[in-house]
Design brief:
The complex is a heterodimer of chains A (328) and B (338).
Chain A (H helix, E strand, L loop, with lengths): L1 H6 L2 H27 L6 H26 L7 H18 L4 H25 L4 H20 L4 E2 L3 H8 L15 H19 L1 H11 L1 H6 L4 H26 L2 E2 L7 H11 L11 H20 L4 H24 L1
Antiparallel strand pairs in A: 1-2
Chain B lengths: L1 H34 L16 E7 L5 H16 L3 E7 L4 H14 L3 E4 L8 H10 L3 E4 L10 E4 L2 H15 L4 E7 L5 H14 L5 E8 L4 H14 L7 E4 L2 H13 L6 E6 L2 H8 L5 E4 L2 H16 L6 E4 L3 E3 L2 H11 L3
Parallel strand pairs in B: 1-2, 1-3, 3-4, 4-5, 5-11, 6-7, 6-8, 8-9, 9-10
Antiparallel strand pairs in B: 10-12
Helix pairs in contact in B: 2-10, 3-4, 5-6, 7-8, 9-11
The chains are: A mainly alpha (328), B alpha/beta (338).
């Protein structure tokens, strides 16, 4: 018993308890929906839910990093849209250059996010305002580049990123893993490693927890913040590619308003808005809770009016329960 | 030093990104000029030598439909010698639209074409024009304050009626129908939904099983359709009608991914992607809002009023049902280069 305590700090224990509490909320929701709708637990529906949360999940993982540093990024929707538009337009002109097109899309999003990073880290503008600036610029650039209209993606491999499976589900009785789920899995694992096993990861927590203390201990806080926004931009780019593949077009207005879903997933997942605390696993469960909620309410045929009310209540309940378990 | 270099590089990157963006838009601009040859039946009136300067305030250009409209207006500006159009993007802000109208009045335009953003909110623009003694023609959407010279547009409800008729045609007037609604409370959702509901009564053998909102977004409509496809096995969904084309295309993606291509899908708007899907036989039909025609009627009406003729108060254009390859091709050609 004593041994365990020395390995796990109090805060770590609290975090573990919190993830279990979240898991509990998530499972309760699943059980409730399974009782309410026989379709809920069918293979095709479960696969559908995982597919639907992939874009928001990837965005939320990036948002988790930003929020742990004590920041926020409102520009993620337009950043994702830029990646989709750029890659779709390159493919329109050069149908064979799939990989360069995808990379250009992702890099375009990352380059745009440098603007936020610069404003926050170098000019010390509040992240909320800095990312509002990027959001507006990125929206404009996406519209300009696409000339305001969606660009259809006809490349089969690109579409597979959003709509495909790792193997044909018909051969295994409907059981398969959708490609976007593989993407989010890889992203989650890589970011988990970055956050938990690297010096940079520890610096993210340090800067978010107490910036002055971090600077005093020799951490280049500005650089950590700048890198985090750019890393978030890269993830937005990846999410944008997945989304574009799913909706088979690069749309300049795609992902509009997605920042709110991403922020919700992060907060429901137990990350503190004041920075310094947060886990990737929690964010994934947060994204799953939102995804299951959307799906379950549609399956039950609940009208849109009620859906919005129910979502608002469940978000509040999830966070409240989470806070309670944290205190205990 | 290193940091300064980095920030310089960043600025350079930003500028490059901006330039890349502008470059692209220029390209497509050229495209649309090229395409002018395909359909330039310019209806130039007798050259009286007088050029009317007409201010145009529109809904946000970021929407494909509004973009088509702006392109059509640009073309009219080029084709008609007696008008000069000054176009402003309201960027989805009613306040900006109102101040844009004030600015145009101050600039001394001869008349104003208003594609209003809000039924109630844009009404004060009508007052402003009236006080300035400038004729106001509203097009495509109209304001609560009816003190304008003329409204040129469509009856939005009739697009819902037409969509329902196209669905009925596609499934031989019997079967199970699903409806994907727009943003709940949005004017287009209310009116298109009302049209669909009204016309549905004429088809006793068509059953509306479920309605859900796809919020006018392709992605959201896809999620809604995927849930339905999981809930209702093959044979229990015959048709899906969506309040706009993007949602219809989202439903199409979901149906194709699930191998449920027997489901007939109808949308509204006439987006390029939807027209292509009709041409490829993937979508049953779409209802095209022929905005090019409406813009032409609006500009012509404004010229007629400025020439001293009495305003016609209301000019209604018809929606165009598109369910065949040939019809879709016609609009594709008209709008290519967008």
């Amino acid at each position: 018993m004593k041994n365990k305590k020395s390995v796990l700090s109090n805060e770590n224990i609290a975090l573990y308890v919190r993830s279990y509490a979240l898991m509990g909320i998530f499972l309760l929701m699943c059980i409730a929906f399974a009782i309410a709708s026989p379709t809920f637990l069918t293979m095709s529906n479960i696969i559908g839910v995982f597919r639907q949360i992939s874009t928001n999940g990837i965005l939320a993982i990036g948002m988790t990093l930003v929020i742990i540093t004590g920041g926020i990024d409102l520009s993620i929707g337009p950043l994702a849209a830029i990646a989709g538009v750029v890659s779709a337009m390159i493919l329109e002109k050069y149908p064979d250059l799939l990989l360069p097109a995808l990379l250009s899309g992702i890099i375009a999003a990352a380059v745009m996010s440098m603007w936020t990073g610069l404003l926050v880290a170098k000019m010390r503008i509040a992240p909320f305002i800095a990312s509002l600036s990027t959001m507006s610029i990125a929206k404009g650039i996406a519209l300009l580049a696409a000339d305001g209209v969606p660009h259809t993606i006809s490349n089969a491999a690109y579409i597979k990123i959003g709509n495909g499976y790792l193997w044909d589900p018909n051969k295994t009785g409907g059981l398969s893993i959708p490609t976007p789920v593989l993407v989010i899995f890889i992203v989650a694992v890589v970011i988990w490693i970055v956050l938990n096993k690297t010096k940079y990861g520890r610096h993210i927590y340090a800067v978010g927890g107490n910036e002055n203390a971090a600077i005093a201990s020799g951490i280049n806080a500005a650089r950590v913040k700048f890198c985090t926004y750019v890393l978030n931009g890269l993830l937005c780019g990846i999410a944008g590619i997945v989304l574009a593949g799913r909706i088979t077009s690069g749309q300049p207005t795609a992902a509009a308003g997605y920042e709110m879903d991403a922020i919700t997933a992060v907060i429901v997942g137990g990350t503190s808005m004041t920075g310094g605390v947060g886990k990737i696993g929690g964010t994934i469960i947060g994204a799953l809770i939102i995804g299951v909620l959307n799906n379950g309410l549609i399956l039950m045929g609940v009208s849109s009016y009620y859906q919005q009310i129910i979502k608002g209540i469940i978000i509040a309940v999830a966070v409240l329960l989470d806070m309670k378990t944290k205190k205990n | 030093m290193k940091k300064r270099l980095l920030s310089l590089l960043l600025c350079a990157a930003m500028v490059m990104a901006m330039l890349a963006g502008c470059g692209n838009s220029k390209d497509s601009g050229n495209d649309s000029v090229d395409d002018k040859g395909t359909d330039s039946k310019s209806e130039d009136g007798p050259d009286s030598g007088k050029v009317y300067k007409i201010g145009v305030s529109t809904q946000a250009w970021k929407y494909e439909f509004i973009k088509n409209m702006v392109n059509a207006l640009n073309k009219l500006d080029d084709d008609m010698d007696q008008v000069e159009l000054v176009m402003v993007d309201s960027e989805d802000s009613v306040e900006k639209q109102l101040s844009d109208v004030d600015t145009m009045i101050a600039q001394g335009v001869d008349g104003i074409l208003l594609n209003c953003l809000s039924f109630e909110g844009s009404s004060s623009a009508v007052e402003a024009c009236k006080n300035a003694g400038i004729p106001l023609v509203e097009f495509i959407s109209y304001t609560e304050n009816e003190d304008y010279a003329t409204f040129v547009g469509t009856d939005v409800k009739s697009s819902g009626i037409m969509a329902m008729d196209l669905i009925a045609d596609a499934i031989d007037e019997k079967g199970k129908l699903f409806e994907i609604q727009g943003v709940i409370g949005h004017t287009a959702q209310i009116n298109r939904g009302a049209g669909i509901a009204e016309e549905l009564k004429n088809y006793p053998d068509i059953e509306l099983v479920e309605s859900q909102s796809g919020e006018f977004s392709k992605d959201k409509a896809m999620a809604v359709t995927e849930a339905w496809l999981a809930k209702y096995p093959a044979g229990e969904i015959d048709a899906i009608v969506a309040h706009n084309d993007q949602m219809a295309l989202g439903a199409l993606n979901a149906c194709q991914a699930a191998n449920r291509t027997e489901i007939k899908i109808v949308g509204i708007d006439g987006d390029a992607e939807a027209l292509q899907a009709v041409m490829d036989g993937k979508m049953a039909a779409t209802v095209v809002d022929y905005c090019e025609e409406e813009c032409k009627l609006a500009v012509e009406e404004m010229v007629s009023i400025l020439d001293g003729n009495a305003p016609k108060k209301e000019i209604l254009a018809d929606y165009v049902p598109v369910s065949t390859k040939e019809e879709a091709q016609k609009f594709m050609d008209l709008r290519s280069g967008n």
